[in-house]
Specification:
Helices cover 36% and strands 22% of the residues. By secondary structure, it is α+β, with helices and mostly antiparallel strands. Strands 1, 2, 3, 4, 5, 6 and 7 form a 7-stranded antiparallel β-sheet that branches. The longest helix is centred in the first third of the chain and has 34 residues, at 21-54. The protein is globular and about 55 Å long.
Length: 184
């Protein structure tokens, strides 16, 4: 750890020569926040493993076998993002499963002003069986990403039961059409 700290200090000294003091402080804060959030993720993973062992599962690997199908909606903790990357907890729709990985498109209920004219943000309307009050959902195809299946969590209704929301054929086709446009 001391060796890492020395290397980091040397790198910061080199960076200080290139950028302003405020930028160095912002960089240090960002680096600290990044380390802090990753530490919390690791600690959370250890707690999850302990709970899984109590319930008779064999650690995080069992979560990577979560049964999921194309078009199903899950709750995902995307972790810490940088810049405009999607981060923290959001619903997403599964597009494809590849072994222990899943390709997903995040969903939001807010069509913010910077998304309104984007062809990569799709108004899906109301998704059946979503927990909470029914509201329009938007698929953010510009934020498509590949994640571990261990991140996929079934949404929970207010009564504590798992629910199984799924996009209908029209909604999935809308997403597929936009992805096809990206291929060209």
């Amino acid at each position: 750890m001391k060796k890492f700290a020395r290397k980091l200090k040397r790198i910061i000294l080199k960076i200080k020569k290139i950028i302003s003091r405020e930028e160095v402080l912002r960089l240090k804060k960002w680096l600290f926040d990044l380390c802090d959030i990753n530490y919390k993720i690791i600690k959370n993973r250890e707690k999850m493993n302990e709970e899984l062992l109590k319930n008779g599962c064999s650690k995080i690997r069992d979560l990577e076998r979560e049964i999921a199908k194309r078009g199903e909606v899950f709750f995902v903790d995307f972790g810490y993002g940088v810049g405009a990357e999607y981060r923290y907890n959001h619903y997403c729709v599964v597009l494809k499963l590849e072994g222990k990985m899943a390709i997903v498109v995040p969903l939001t209920s807010h069509n913010s002003s910077h998304n309104q004219n984007s062809p990569l943000v799709i108004n899906l309307g109301i998704i059946n069986k979503m927990p909470g009050k029914p509201k329009n959902s938007y698929a953010l195809v510009n934020q498509i990403r590949s994640i571990s299946r261990a991140r996929l969590k079934r949404p929970i209704e207010s009564n504590g039961k798992k629910c199984y929301p799924k996009l209908n054929g029209i909604q999935l086709t809308q997403i597929d059409n936009v992805i096809d446009l990206l291929k060209k």
